[in-house]
Amino acid sequence: MTFKTSPSLLAADFLHLESEIRRAEAAGADMLHCDVMDGVYVPNISFGFFIIRQIAKITSLPLDVHMMTACPQNYLDVLKNAGAASVTLHSDVMPMDELIETLKKIREMGMKAAVSLRPKCPASDVFPCVPYVDMILVMTVEPGFGGQKFMHDMMPKVAELRAYLDEHKPECEIQVDGGVAPDTVAECAKAGASNFVVGTASFRAPDMGEALRGIVKTAEDAVKEI
Ligand code: DX5
Ligand code: ZN
Questions:
Q1: N or C end: fewer C-beta atoms under 10 angstroms in the chain?
Q2: pLDDT band at residue 1, thresholds of 50, 70 and 90?
Q3: 141: containing domain
Q4: Active-site annotation holds for 35
Q5: Is 177 among the residues known to form the active site?
Q6: Which CATH number characterizes residue 156's domain?
Q7: Can you give the pLDDT at residue 10?
Q8: Residue range 79-94, pLDDT digits in tens
Q9: DSSP strand E in 52-183: where?
Q10: Burial of 225 (0-12, 13-18, 19+ CB in 10 A)
């Protein structure tokens, strides 16, 4: 299994964003996680497309855009123009038929598509989306803020999803987001996650390279034990 890290810019020092991105590149990040929040879908407001556009101009790391907004379908053109490599939508933000149409459109536009489950949503909520996505995000905190406590009770959902994907779409990745750190990543990997969003435990670690390498090594060791 190949493990990937996606440092969450929410934990970066925004006064020095360019050097923070260089730090993530030097640390071996596979992508950069951009959390877009609108104060409606989640009780917080972060940054938007203008910032993503500026980031895309200075890095070749793929931008993994996590949309925590109402009406994400209204922003697909602007996301494409801003340089998003992948777009993650939440499963409970619109009815299933619209969600599938939006995921299809994201792919037609040349971006990767992903769907996310917030903690209260069961794995089965995204089964109908599986043919249309490259990745499924399982939130391991309530979306809205960085630095929250990892929810261990999300692991059975990751395992259920992995079992479903192994049967229907083995190449589909599971991403986990929220409180992912050296002491929580082993259980994520064992449950079947392979893509780790890491905010606090990457940008706020004493050495980001060491932190990301440690996370990947811990995940590799954890699955060897199975
Ligand atoms: C929370 C965001 C996360 C957040 C993770 O709603 O989706 O991406 O930045 O931060 P940590 O790793 O600090 O929990
Ligand atoms: Zn996120």
A1: C
A2: confident
A3: 4-224
A4: yes
A5: yes
A6: 3.20.20.70
A7: 98
A8: 999 999 999 999 999 9
A9: 63-68, 86-90, 112-117, 135-139, 173-177
A10: exposed
